[in-house]
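Render this sequence as a predicted structure.
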Amino acid sequence: MPEASDVRHLLDTAEGRRLRSCATEGWHRWGPYLSERQWGTVREDYGADGTAWDYLPHDHARSRAYRWGEDGIAGFSDDKQLWCLSLALWNGHDPILKERMFGLTNAEGNHGEDVKELYWFLDGTPTHSYMRMLYKYPHAEFPYADLVAENGRRKGRDLPEYELADTGILAENRCFDITIEYAKAGPEDVLMRVTIINRGPEAAEIHILPHLCFRNTWSWREDPKRPLLRLTEGPVVEASRATGPKRLFTALQPAEFLFCENETNSERLFGTKGAFHPKDSINDDVIAGTRTHVNPLREGTKCAALSRHTLAPGELHVLRYRLNLADEPALGEAEFEKVFERRIVEADAFYAVLQHGMDSHDARLVQRQALAGMLWSKQFYHFDVRRWLMGDPTQPEPPASRLHGRNHEWAHLNNADIISMPDTWEYPWYAAWDLAFHCVTFALIDPEFAKGQLVLLTREWYMHPNGQLPAYEWNFGDVNPPVHAWAALRVYQLDAALTGQPDRGFLERVFHKLMLNFTWWVNRKDAQGRNVFQGGFLGLDNIGVFDRSSPLPTGGTIDQADGTAWMAMYTLNLMRIALELSTEDRVYEDIATKFFEHFLYIAEAMTDIGASGRGLWDEADQFFYDVLELPDGRKLPLQVRSLVGLIPLCAVEVLDVKLRDRFPGFARRANWMLRNRPDLAALVSHWSQGDGEGPPPGPNGDLLLLSLLRRHRMKALLARLLDETEFLSDHGIRALSKAHADHPFVLEWDSTRYAVDYEPAESKTGTFGGNSNWRGPIWMPINVLLIEALDRFGTFHGAETRFECPTGSGRYLSLPEIADELSRRICKLFLRGPDGRRPVHVSYGALANDPQVQDCIPFHEYFHGETGAGLGAMHQTGWTGLVALLFRPGRLNDLAMNHAIYS
């Protein structure tokens, strides 16, 4: 990350100037907003039993018109996804065109859903003026059946997944490397370049079919006005809608244009008569080598520009296409290439400023690809839950069960926006806490987009009337950690560093909505009014003994160390925001005091739940644990050493003592509370009673610390955090202590054994569903929060206070140095090691040695707790993209993220 003085030059680059003009010139209007998967999603599920994967499977995708969106390989569309451009391929052997990525459903994979293709997002700019990705396509027939069958045979989760490279189809590099690039000649002028290289030892044939289609908006209502694609002279496809200007789709080399309708093939799927020339007509004719299915009139709502090519070994071939407004002048091949050359130079200049001072070429490569993955994962997300529940006028009535089934309490939700997704295949839907992390990374390169995303989730057509934020489409009512305020504060700070102008209007707008959300948390998740929270899922889906989203087999409730710590962090974030807003409006001082008070009460509860109860801190083990409250009043600590007990470290804030001059009302009221409740002050703060007018200087002179941890407890947690036999791995902080490998936690209840043991890779059981595992692997978002917390503690304690790192090593570091050490270990996941290999590639097997793959970086969902191998979703750059923040020492302090922003 560059220094603040350097990063402001981003806006002086050509790409930066485009960013500043987006609101008036529309450079954001077109982008990679087409998902890799629309099939198998909840919003496309109109079945009776809620099994979305089964209702619209991959086999139906080529034949069924989608209701709520489109998908395609390397897709590009406008921001309402009315015009959709993507790439289809055929190697002459596959039973179907390769129009979209293939993968296993949650039931088919022995580790859950999993894309079975090889592709990487390699580059991009914030305005999408330039984008690049790579896709590997085998010469031989794609092994659809083999991938399904073999993964089906591997029933045990202790067995590895069966991947494309394991099938042998890529032996001797018998595949095409296909690079898809986009460059904009103007805000509405999209150029597509497809570069094909035959990597194999023999000549091979490939069919290239860029697709242009209209998203089907006409089949769901009466008397719709249909758009039209038709072939004109040139040959050029003219595209027109009832409103708006005409566009032209052109191939700059010979191509055969094929046309059909983007409508369901009812005869194939349901045995009933349907549309002429339905959605799969192009597929059927190309595979059969006929022209009996496509529209002979050469018009429709979907078309493809077909060309066939035989490439010798190592041969490279380039194809060029354009989608532009009809009144723009023609563009020849030379002018086409000049646009690409100019956009690539501009992209390089933009990242040169961002990466100023980063000496490592490899680190620059990884950071740029991390940001590219973020940019490629921006998707158009459309879902009107009320319409989905009730059905469409021209379609069969949905089953009555859906009116009382999934998401029926969220009928207000009506989304049709560009949103940052966790992943474009495994998670092609937004998730509340994922999105918060995404925004912090996006703020490095496009803070306006980041701010817009945070505001969007709090809008009335997203946020529930009761104040809850929507979690994700599989269950909008589930509970994710409340990190939205943290993200808003960080985005605000990064934006101010980039522009030199704090956007208090954004901060105020978000703050008001988050106060509603905070009230929902207090009223709904603190069931007994004790400032102890039973949040449920909280994103850490299988780290504990029980499924916290379901009724407990023991009865009672779980007092959550992480849920309570998340809320303590939430109060501090909201207090900090209120103080910042107080610089221009003193009314917010009262609100800051309120959140200060909330924090103290939560901190008290973390230590002692009631006069006769016990706290969440276990003095004997020197760790925070969840506590099971049984119906008979007994309290049972669940002694699992996991991230649950480390998250209290994240609830920390450092304030400047000068605030008593800036905010005398806040200082006076806070000091009154601490003077009159010394029990609270003693529990959590280094803030002394002072002279009645404000707090005196803290140990570091001008700084004051608010934390759930006194020095003794912080030191105890750090000792475990930095212990390589417990949490500290070569590649970051594990989600579960390695001590549980030899000493699993076991609870016997009603003749049933509940256990938690150390699993550094994929989960060995299907506990709580899905393919994720929090029982030992490394997860990026929590690591980043812990690094930031250590930086903030270090701001208070100073360089003189040192801790052993690793525990037992005899090596002592300051807290900022420890934060840097953790960052270095995490970055090692992606960087070439002494042997030239990247740990994240370990799971690639022989493919990791392919020179064409070695510099293609996957950003997995999580990582093996011992080897660092990438696990889970292969393209979940969303929150793993946070690594872009970590490639320089002091990375989080560079932009004043941990200092008092009001001073």
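Summary. Residues 333-354 form the longest helix (22 residues). The chain has 24 helices and 34 strands.
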